[in-house]
Design brief:
With 149 residues, the chain is mainly α. The chain contains 7 helices and 2 strands.
Length: 149
Amino acid sequence: MRISARADYAIRALLELAVDTSRPLTCEGIAQSQEIPHRFLKAVFRDLRRAELVRSQRGCEGGYWLSRDAASISLAAIVAAVDGQLMTVHGESPGDQRYPGPAARLSEFWTGLQRRYEDILAGVSLADLLADEPPEPAVSLLRDAALST
């Protein structure tokens, strides 16, 4: 599985916005705080704005805010906003793949994997990642990561 830099940067930027909702944050400030290339992050924010995950305001008091509550923004929505379809095989939907002979069931496997991946990402919100006691499936993933380090 591959998580693109765009998706990683988008999630990190939105977590910054979710921590402080009292004021807008600038793209420059988020880029510096998260050590993300500023120009790249500007392009990511364009996609996030188009997907209506953030709103922006120009001017000296300007910057970005989350467009809705962090609990209602799933990781799946963020990844889809910046990368499009969450999982592809040769650039196509896994269900569109057809294989001959002994590999015939492989498209079913890819489709099942896609559903699991989407379910996990859809089941974790920005608020879950920031919570002291996150709900499932975030808590299991965080616990599994802690055990492997």
